[in-house]
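Thread: sanity check for a docking pose with zinc ion

Original post by kr_44:
Hi all, I'm comparing my docking run against an independent structure prediction. Below are the sequence and the ligand SMILES. Could someone generate the full complex and paste the structure tokens? I mainly care about where the ligand ends up relative to the chain.
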Amino acid sequence: MKTQTSFLIIMLVVVAACGFYSCAGEAGSFDRTPEEVAEEESQGEAVETVGLPGLENMDLPHVETDIEPEDQVDGAAPEDMVAEPLSSTCTNHINTSTHIWYVYYTGTCTTKYRFNLEADNSTIRYAYGFDTAGRRISYYQYYDGHDTVQDHKVIYKFTLKTGTYTIDHAVKYDLNSRWIAYYLYHDGHDTVQDHKLKYKFVLKTGTQTINYGYKYNLDTQKTIYYEYHVDYNTISNHKVRYKFFLKTGTNTINYAYKYDIAGNRRAYFLYHSGYNTISSHRMRFRSTYNASGRWTGEAGFTVSGVVTGTGRLMTPVVLDTITCGWYCYSGHQGADFGSAGIDSDNLYAADSGYVVSAYTMGSEYASYSCPVEGKTLVGQQMIYIYHGNGKITQYGHMKSMAVSTGDYVFKGQVIGKVGSTGCATGPHLHFGVITNGKTWGAPYGSSYYGSPYYENPANHLEQSINDKTGW
Ligand SMILES: [Zn+2]
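Reply from moderator J.T.:
Ran it for you. Here is the predicted complex with zinc ion included:
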């Protein structure tokens, strides 16, 4: 299972398109990430649920750029309810001694609205609405400057659990009394005195149609940003299309998921650092899901020629025993994975990156001899992937390739199958790590400048194929 590595170095200068070989893609399968598991365990809200099944086209997520300033609700402390002095005629009136303004249900002496006034008896502090049985059903706050008895404008209407101070949900209005936001609250923290916003849905003005939404933690910090399926984004029938996980309390995106109408995850997104705010997000990589919610892997995206992997290399095969390590024989600048049964196994990208070269060696290599008689370099299939920060991984002796030169690959994406093409004496993967890849032509041109500097792959493999942390 030896390989003549000195030839592999020379091969770096060669770039061959995938035309030498069929480039049909192939699905890999991985377990869910810890983030997914933790996120799922913390979920369970009715916000992203049910509906008719149907797959969405994969698009770059569209995000609203006009992010509304934070309008966390101020909780005015309600006063205790006093016995309500009904007027003898049950007409609307202001009790100038208690500073309360009463409005009655027509034809009855039942209070419909009670406005608690400032001492001037004309400015509203807050108000309650009652049902015909005298139970509280809503709580109101008003716009400053528009909260007089003559000119009161509701800014928030909190719908209460009947007869209590517990908030069910709330609506925010503009000065023309049109709906502009809808709120849901954390259970156990949703009283009028201690309400904690859990979800804020920004609405299309005057409608019950959701533009986008946020989720908050108990410290009122933003944690998730939502976008919705068109035609399924009303308050009574909203369906999450994208869920962006934010760095707590900021508008900065960590990663995101895409969902179909049925609420199934269909894609996972990572973003470029420094370009991942809600108003300026740039996707770095994405991976699609198959029906069972597992990775299928998909090419990623780049911004301004920048491609950066996770920085942690994953062992690229499942049978991860190194059968011939660094300099196991003179000149062996790599690690061979050659366990029994590895023939035709899937080969995975050790990290996300850009395929600088995926090629089959042609007749130009016929003059090079292999250390083993009867072998030839001609026909060897090889891949080089650039991961940013000067790092390149090399995959040799492949039986088949599933990516092409110029592709972007996601960490863990299947890039081909293990074989024994070239000088190999048996099926194995020759895996190499180059650390001075910064000399590759910008942005990742096909030419190589300078001498490749190989390092012992064993010193760079930080993750097993089943370790999904830090992806
Ligand atoms: Zn080798």
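The longest strand covers residues 222-234. Hope that helps with the comparison, let us know if your pose agrees.
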